[in-house]
Amino acid sequence: MSSYFRDTTLDVLIGVGGTLLGAIVGVRGALAISRDERRHGQQEDVRRALATYLGAIYPVVNELRELPAVQPVSPLIRWLGRLERSDVAWVRQRRREYRLYGYRHREGGDRLAAAVAELQVRPMPEALQAAVDRANNYIERLGEQRTPELREEWSSVHADLMRGREALDSWTPPRAARRRWLTAIRRAIRAPEE
After folding, report:
1. What is the CA radius of gyration of the chain?
2. pLDDT tens for residues 7-23?
3. I need a labelling partner for 24 at 20 to 30 A (CA). Which of 56, 78, 133, 179 fits?
4. 132 contacts 164 by C-beta, under 8 angstroms
């Protein structure tokens, strides 16, 4: 084998090997960047859903906290209520609510329900999930009773929500949860057609 052939072959092997090695490093880097971008995108999706949730829960909490405390119903009124048909009682209750509040409180409840649904299909840090669950429970309890102690609990509930939001900064979305989320979205999109 001639020296020229050996040198040319060596140059070609070094060139091809270097190109191949560079391509492998480049692909690995691109995949790492893509993975980081996906994770960041998931974090941003959760942030947007949380912002929508907070934008819906604040007016609902404000409205409920301003309502007067729930007064006990007398036994006579309860007894008279049993005599009325349930559908008539329901219509009467809705009319009474409309005269007092209009549709505003129903619209707030609808926005909050939609925001909760948006959060439920997304993976999120455990601290945020616990804070959202606590806030939802607080809304339910505040709708049933409005004691001064319960009204004051909001500052603690809100602080939990803010700690949950901060947990998003260091959170890495799990891959399996992402797949479940995507599957849930795909099913929701296909459901009307079936």
Report:
1. 29
2. 677 666 677 677 766 66
3. 179
4. yes
Sign for the pseudo-dihedral over CA of 29, 35, 38, 39? negative
Element housing 154 (H / E)? helix 154-167
Nearest to 119 by CA among 40, 53, 187, 182: 53
Do 100 and 68 contact (CB within 8 A), yes or no? no
Measured distance CA(134)–CA(156) in Å, rounded? 10
Kindly report the backbone phi and psi dihedral angles of residue 27, in degrees, each rounded to the nearest multiple of 5, phi listed first: -65, -45
Cα separation, 90 vs 82, in Å, equals 12
- For the full predicted model, state whether its pTM sits above 0.85: no
8-state DSSP, 84:
S
